[in-house]
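Hey,
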Amino acid sequence: MRSLLGFLLLAVAAPVCAEPAALPTQEGDYVVRDFRFSSGATLPELRLHYTTLGRPVRDAAGHVTNAVLVLHGTGGDGHQFLRPQFAGELFGPGQPLDVAKYYVILPDGIGHGKSSKPSDGLHARFPEYGYADMVAAQHLLLTQGLGVDRLRLLMGTSMGCMHAFVWGETYPDFMDAMVPLACLPVQIAGRNRMWRRMVIDAIRDDPAWAGGEYHSEPREALRTASDLLVIAGSAPLYFQSAYPTREAADQRVAESTRASLATLDANDLLYQVGASHDYDPAARLGDIRAPVLWINSADDFINPPELGIAEAQVKRLAHGRFVLLPVSERTRGHGSHTWAALWKSELTAFLHETERAGR
């Protein structure tokens, strides 16, 4: 089942569109045996699903030189990057990440997509996972599963943006450049933590959740989660334009609720939202060696610019630049990270800069 946050953020951005027919993909699964989580729990088999575009190019020593890793947000999966508003702007001929030149890797994180997750059968007995676990698994997928020991570029959106900062600190020599989109590199606190906690409590406090062993989804909990996540993913200017009457706004809420209740698994959502519990990269930002192009949007409810956090933290990066997209009729709040046309020119210039620098 698709998780709610991924669904709602895509719904804010645009109606679901078909994947571009001109971009052939390959999919696979890499299974990690006896994966040990940071909690100490283990899973006999951890399945990591992935989608790739293009082909790896290797140098004389056998190292891949053209790999690009793109990491999705909470509730998403690698397939979300195949939609026209992202792939149609980046992956085609002559575009910044032309798959004739680059080997693009789109993994499904732990607990997401076709990778191992609670709804596969373990339910609430699935090991608790955090962002450190998710990044460690991605590293295993690249190095052991795909034979990639260096990235030309690491990109991530929302949760994937946060994963990018964890990657940069944990494996500082692994990537030539980083583009994190739509996050802040500090512990999740304040309003951002509060709405997440509300989602978690709504599920756990619903008697129908039954400790995670429900036979049918806890609908009232999921209604509450749906409402909170509509607001978290909202874009005020766009919403006012797209739903200018009471009737239109009410219909949109009804449609979001109906769609989410039809596709959502409560345990998967609970784990996905809770996975940020170990995220706190601020103290080690100076360990990141790769150049960083960090992009947020000014109408992002989840990462509001008025906090001034980004401007303070970017100074701690050895080679970092922060770009704040101004609010416009084209931005989509937190979902602006998926509308590549908004920031494609910045990415193009950054790729040229880091290539000239010999990275």
